[in-house]
Amino acid sequence: MRILVINAGSSSLKYQLFDMTNESVLASGRVERIGMDSSIVTHEPTDKPEVKDVSEILDHVTAVKRVIDLLVHPEHGVIRSMDEIDAVGHRVVHGGETFKESVLVDQDVKLEIRNLFDLAPLHNPAHMMGINAVDTNLPEVPQAVVFDTAFHQSMPPVAYLYPIPMVLYRRHKIRRYGFHGTSHNYVSQQAAELLGKPLEELKMVTCHIGNGASCTAIMGGKSVDTSMGLTPLEGLMMGTRSGDLDPAIVPFTMNKEDLTLSEVNSMLNKHSGLMAISGISSDMREIVDSMEEGDRNAKLAFDMYTYRVRKYIGSYVAAMDGLDVLVFTAGVGENSVQLRDAVCSGLSYFGVKLDPELNKQRSKQARIISAPDSRTKVMVVPTNEELIIARDTYRLVLEQEKQENYEI
Ligand code: AMP
Known about the structure:
Its EC number is 2.7.2.1. InterPro entries: Ac/propionate_kinase, Aliphatic_acid_kin_short-chain, Aliphatic_acid_kinase_CS, ATPase_NBD. By secondary structure, the chain is of the alpha/beta class. It folds into 2 domains: 2-147, Nucleotidyltransferase, domain 5 (2-Layer Sandwich); 181-385, Nucleotidyltransferase, domain 5 (2-Layer Sandwich). It is built from 15 helices and 14 strands. It has helices at 60-71, 107-115, 124-137, 157-160, 166-172, 181-195, 249-257, 261-270, 273-278, 284-292, 296-320, 330-335, 337-344, 356-360, 385-407, and strands at 2-8, 12-19, 24-32, 39-45, 51-55, 87-92, 103-104, 143-147, 203-209, 213-219, 222-226, 325-329, 367-368, 377-380. The strands form 2 sheets. It has an 8-stranded mixed beta sheet with strand order 5-4-3-2-1-6-8-7, with helices on both faces. It has a 6-stranded mixed beta sheet with strand order 11-10-9-12-14-13, with helices on both faces. Strand 1 (2-8) and strand 2 form a beta hairpin. Helix 1 (60-71) crosses helix 3, helix 10 crosses helix 11 and helix 11 packs across helix 13. The chain is globular, with a radius of gyration of 22 Å. The chain binds adenosine monophosphate.
């Protein structure tokens, strides 16, 4: 079975085509600047050279058509016809309280995703455009949706409610939802597998640290708390996002600087975090390089960033009354030796002891980086959100086929 995974944004669309017989990627790519006059398409077939072109792609329907044309192209393609695409899986950021797991798309599901537009105004409408574009181009092909929030629906009320008037939860569903759920779920399963221990018996903190960053407390394979909240702004300090701060800073800054709500919103999402403190970059590679060259602002940004990761880990040890495994994943978590070292060096009280040599080794494989006598195991597990979307889609389509066979 071949599954096309799509991550549709408002002006971009990323894709990967999987062959599920061996979970290999046949091709991947992206369409950028959709709706603008010069859209850029980058198509990367696994065993052929990359193709890049600039053309006018005015909407998502045309973008999906372009992707299909490339996948079946006689020279650059990887399949003979579009009939070889058996299903499409979409990443959807917000599933609200409705979606506790991935589902196949039907009219009710579409309606529900639309009802959640308010909670993710930048993301869910774009995902819906992606779903509709597939409907138009591949009307017979089943589609599934995999939600960033779904894994965190196991959180108890004590973790997901905010101490503000309950009417706001009842009326507007203001609560913690959490994000990166697909990644936290995947790396926790991989970590248990590598350790050879049942997930049900483990207390884990998974740190997904990329451009966006979040920590999750996972007990018995279930998310019991996570650092992102109603939106992906809460929690850790990030590349350009502030993460946690005193909410009173918002009205105070508006007043003192004569800023509008949308200006403050933009400040906290796009002009804060590593970028704001270092004054250099939101990219951890540049922060570390500048820090090593003696830049004091870069050092302050790095120290604040890692301090906040450590504080979250500490609070989740308290939430779970223990810790067996600490997992690092995503761009920074998988690659930054310095970040892992700085975070772990303050966690000795929790039985964390990093092996400096193992921490330095570069590999694309999941691995243990703690010393053999470390009470808590520390691991690096590369995340693969597209693969999980493909697996969930595959499982749902097979289940539906089985169901239809019974009905016959
Ligand atoms: P992601 O959002 O998971 O794709 O992560 C992207 C981020 O990972 C980039 O913005 C970089 O800051 C970071 N990153 C990638 N490679 C490295 C590296 N070798 N060291 C530190 N940070 C890295």
